[in-house]
Each structure stands twice: as structure tokens, then as C-alpha cells.
Design goal:
The structure is a homodimer.
Chain A: H1 25-38, H2 42-46, E1 51-53, E2 61-69, E3 75-76, E4 79-80, H3 81-95, E5 99-110, H4 115-131, E6 135-144, E7 152-162, E8 178-181, H5 187-197, H6 213-222, E9 228-230, H7 236-248, E10 251-255, H8 263-272, E11 286-289, H9 294-303, E12 311-317, E13 324-327, E14 333-335
Parallel strand pairs in A: 5-6, 10-13
Antiparallel strand pairs in A: 2-7, 3-4, 5-7, 8-11, 8-12, 9-11, 10-12, 13-14
Chain lengths: ~350, ~350
């Protein structure tokens, strides 16, 4: 084969330029030296326009989910846009009840972006995918002019296999169901905000970003009647519960005293006037199950390394107005609304 | 269900703001009033984190392909970023030999983008998908601050079903194979360039953007031994043939006199000093088949509305250097290299 690489990319001090998105030799070089190396698998090596995936087991159905990632800053305590773009999408597949198997990825790079940062991000994606047993099978790279993007945006699409006998949906919650969460709330959102604003708080404020497929599998096993799982990302627990209430036409009542919130997040929220219920988590799982299955499900969550601080936080009630409310520690009830605006843009 | 919509979106004179990407009420409203309406299908209505797709037929395998779309300008003669983002990705699935079935979509919107333009783009996507019999089953919306994006970027992932007995790849070309193209070259690239630079040329310069699944099916039927199909987009025919030559470790020799180029593109290329071989097409199909199948395949292409100007343009030869060459009309041979740089960024 003729050598088309005049010289290797300067991955130390080079930068992305428009030619890297042009479909020609420079793009092939970027794909080969950065992405194919970081995501190493037989599909990418083949270099076709797409990937041919093996058939699923009989009865299994494909679950697909997409997320675009525009988090700012790109690197933050506990992760970066690369690991987040893998976790975020494979978690969306996992909370549908499916075993995540494959990812595709679309990069939109800004001219002038340092190749060293791109490599770091690609390697972080590769590690996160490998750790979760997921292959990044196909992708695309575009470059926009300086000032028309913001470093790098990453859109990932996740595909997974849903067993024949399971189906979960936000529309399946019923009065009497229990609402559980796998750990403390809002670490991801608060870590991003602190990093962005240069704030430091007591305690370790790190993103909770994590792959939830193992925890989700434990939940599926512990609760045969499981209604649904969700990861409370953008908009936090408040938005997620309001969505579920609307999808299922039910109400939800939370117990304030039961909500797990770390001391660092609680302190930062108090200082900034924010509510942990509106802050994104990227490694927490919300589950709704029949009331009778709450105890074994809680035990299963707590037995998993990612669920040690799991809690039973509320219950589903009959309410055609679809209100989400909270029983406060003072004995009253208040509405838990989703925010009309956005306290914290670009957290994922 | 409680009414969470205080008032409908102002789709005439309103603009995207950061809250539309915040995971809360404003985002739900945007999704409901723009995307769910434009892409109407049972998966989206459900509102879960992803879509559960029906099982494929026994023996069929899933083909998946992703493209990010950053075309500038967003609207151009013959299409817009919406129709392009549907055609581009479903074509990548179709040229793998698969029947396109589903799309997922990730939007990255810039704060301040007119909602009227977003609606126009979403409706164009919806129409393009419906025309091709493809459902947009799941998606995501992010918003970045003014000056951190460029109106709208759209990443689509396409999924399709590959019959059990077929497999195509850029690695399957063999000496003696014939190279065919379904129509004139470079209309898309030249239409974008003319629009961007405010140039007018004689003749109708419109993008060739089109859904190729029907034409691809005709090719599969006409050529049982078909090696591969491609759509020569970024980098044009030159980049696509060089990729194939490298994947298959073969050479390719084109006949200049056989290359179909419209008069408008030829004139514009002459004026601008460009080569139609480097210009993107978005509705043309390149096929490589055993030499003996070239005649029936050419006939089948020409019998299809999208292939009337199809031509047999060259042949695959043994060449370990992977050279792509052209037999010129003057009788000589010249190299057809892919460009190191980028004559025309952001054409898709």
C-alpha cells in the first residue's frame, strides 16, 4: 500500500484545522492516529461507511438512545467530555433495561482545538467504553471554523439488547409504587458549576459520572415487577420525576428526610441558593418498583459498589394533576416543580 | 394531566434560548411543539430515554452509521441541513447494502437561533424521513451560548437491516471489476459553494441531495456479485476511490471521457479552478461490481429515476501502490489524488 502519511500528526503541540474534516487525506490521518487507535476494534479497522453488527439473541430487541454532549469545561473533577459522552449514552440504554453493546460517535471539532486535548478525550472515551464492555463501532468527524463551535461537541448513539420478557417505561408508574435512588444527588452539576465559576467548597466535589449498566442489571434482577429506571441528569431529580408523573398520569410524594445529599453539595447549594433536586447527576439511578419489591430492591442497590448510599425516597400516588410534592422535614408539603429556566447550562 | 405549557412557543418570531436545552419545562415544550410534531411516530410520543425497536427478520443484521452535519449555509438550492442530515445518513446505511429503517438525531442549537428556521428544518427532516419510509425514533437537544455554535448542528445515526446473504465492503474490490456512478458529479458541493460565495452560473446549480435506498436496492438486485457501493460525499469521487483502493489494495483506472459532469458544474469548475472529482455529491451512488455484471448493472441504474445519467467510468486493476489514475481525453494518464487540504469546508 502506498504511504499516504507524509508525516505523523503532531499530537503534542498540533491543532485541528479545517482539512481534518474535509474527507481527504488529513481526515484519514486524524481518524487513524487518534480515533481508530483509541477505540481499537474490528469494525473501525474496516473503514466502511458504517458497521455491520451481529444479530441479537432470539427474542431480544434493540434499544437505541442518542445524546449530544456540549459540557463546558471539557475537563472537570471526576471526568471529561469523553468519558461523559460514553457514560451518558450507555446509561440511557441501561435504564431502558437493555444491555449496552455498541456506540457510534459524531465529533464536531472547532478549528484550532489542540490535538493533545482531542487525544486525551478520545483515550478517555476508549477507556470508558472498554470498561463497560461497549465497542465504538462507527463515527464521523466534522470541523467548523474558529468561533463557530466550542472546542469539541460529541454526539453518541448507544445500542443495546433488551431481553424478550422485560419492558420498562416512564409511563408504567402506578399508585403504591416505591421510588428509590441509588446515591447522593447533584454531584455532577455542582462539580461543573464549581469548576466553571472557580469556586471551592469544603469536601471533595467531584462528578459522579459512571457507567450504570452493572447497577441496572442488579436492579432488574432484584425487582421482577420493576416499572422503570431513569438517570436524573439535566434538570435533576425534579425534572425526571415530573416527566414520569406526566408520562404515567400519577403524582409522586418525596420524603425530604430520605433524600441522600452529600455534605459538600448541601453546603454549596446553601451558599449558591440552589436546590439539589434541580442539579444533574450522571452516575445515579432512579428506580420505580411495586411497593412490595422496595425492600429487596433497596438491599440489592446497597450491595452494589455504585449504590451504597441508595435510599427509598418516596412513593407514587393517584393524582390526575401529576403533581410532584415533597413532605418536608418541618411537616409540611411543598411542590417540586421543574424549573422553567436553566440554572446551569451545558452540564452535559 | 396538569397543563405545564403556560403559552405556546412563538414559532414565528421567537428564538432558541438556553432554557430550551436545560432538561426542564422549556425543553419539553420545544420537543413537543417542534420535534415530536414534525417527526410524529409512536416511539417519540412515548417520551422515554430511548426507543425499543422491533426485532429484525431472522438472519438479518443491523447496520449502523453516523454523520454530523454542519453545512453552511443551512438552506441551499435543492435542500437544507434537515433534509441533508436525513439523506446523508440513510444513504450511508443504504450503500452498506441495508434497508434503512430508523434514525436517531442529536441537535446542537445556538442560543438566539430563530425558532421559525428550526421548525422549517425539523419539518424538512420529517418529510425526508417519511418519504424514505424511515422513522426518527429518538433524539436529544442541547443549546450552547451565542457565539459557541453556528445556528444548528445535526448529528443523525441511521439503522437498517442487512439481508443474511449480502455483505459489501470497500475492501472487496478485485482487479477486473467495473466502476460505475449513478449520475453527474459534484452538484452538491458546487451548489453550496455558489450559494456561499454569491456566485451565479449559467444553468441550474442545485444540490443533488437525495435518498438513495431505492436506487441501492435496484443495484443489489441487478448485481448478485456486487462488491461495494459508496456515496461520494466529502472529498468527492477522488477521495472515495482512493479510500477503496487502499481498503482493497488495488489500483483504479478512470476514463475521463466517461465521467458524467453537468455543463453547469463543468463551467463553474473551469471558472473557479476546481476539479469535479473533488466535489461532493449527496445523491449519487458509486458501485463496484464484477466486470461481467457491468452491463446489466448499468442498465438497471439507467432504468431508475435517480440513475438516468449513470455511466461505467473505470475499472479496478492490480496495483499494490493503490494508485487511482485517469486515462485523459488527450491519451495520457494522470494521478487522481485526494486533496491534502480542503477546497470547501462544511459542505455537509
Amino acid at each position: 500500500m502506498k504511504s499516504v502519511y507524509v508525516r505523523p500528526l503532531d499530537l503534542r503541540s498540533g491543532h485541528v484545522d479545517l482539512a481534518h474534516g474535509g474527507g481527504g487525506r488529513a481526515m484519514q490521518q486524524l481518524i487513524g492516529e487518534v480515533f481508530r487507535r483509541a477505540f481499537d476494534n474490528p469494525w473501525l479497522v474496516r473503514g466502511d461507511d458504517g458497521a455491520v453488527l451481529p444479530a441479537l439473541a432470539p427474542g431480544e430487541r434493540l434499544v437505541v438512545s442518542t445524546d449530544s454532549h456540549v459540557v463546558s469545561p471539557l475537563f472537570f473533577p471526576g471526568g471529561d467530555i469523553g468519558s461523559l459522552s460514553v457514560h451518558g449514552t450507555l446509561n440511557d440504554v441501561a435504564v431502558m433495561g437493555a444491555r449496552p453493546l455498541y456506540l457510534s460517535v459524531g465529533f464536531i471539532l472547532e478549528e484550532g482545538f489542540p490535538l493533545a486535548d482531542l487525544l486525551r478525550i478520545a483515550e478517555s472515551m476508549g477507556r470508558a467504553a472498554a470498561d463497560a464492555g461497549v465497542a465504538i463501532v462507527t463515527g464521523d468527524t466534522k470541523v467548523v471554523e474558529r468561533g463557530k463551535g466550542d472546542g469539541v461537541f460529541i454526539t453518541t448513539t448507544g445500542m443495546g439488547a433488551l431481553p424478550a420478557d422485560r419492558e420498562l417505561s416512564g409511563a408504567f408508574a402506578r399508585p403504591g409504587d416505591a421510588v428509590l435512588v441509588s446515591g447522593t444527588l447533584g454531584e455532577h452539576g455542582m462539580a461543573i458549576m464549581a469548576q466553571r465559576e472557580g469556586l471551592t467548597f469544603e469536601g471533595d466535589l467531584r462528578s459522579d459520572s459512571a457507567a450504570l449498566h452493572g447497577l441496572a442489571a442488579a436492579v432488574l434482577e432484584a425487582s421482577p415487577g420493576l416499572r422503570l429506571m431513569r438517570d436524573p441528569t439535566r434538570g435533576g431529580l425534579a425534572a425526571t420525576l415530573n416527566e414520569i408523573a406526566r408520562q404515567s398520569t400519577v403524582g409522586i410524594v418525596l420524603e425530604e428526610s430520605a433524600l441522600p445529599v452529600s455534605q459538600a453539595v448541601a453546603a454549596a447549594c446553601e451558599f449558591l441558593g440552589l436546590d439539589p433536586l434541580n442539579l444533574a447527576s450522571e452516575g445515579r439511578l432512579l428506580a420505580v418498583c411495586p411497593g412490595a419489591e422496595a425492600a429487596p430492591l433497596l438491599a440489592a442497590l446497597r450491595a452494589h459498589p455504585l449504590g451504597r448510599q441508595a435510599a427509598l425516597i418516596g412513593e407514587v400516588v393517584a393524582d390526575e394533576r401529576c403533581f410532584v410534592q415533597m413532605q418536608t422535614m418541618l411537616g409540611g408539603r411543598r411542590m417540586v416543580d421543574w424549573l422553567a429556566g436553566e440554572p446551569l447550562p451545558r452540564i452535559c
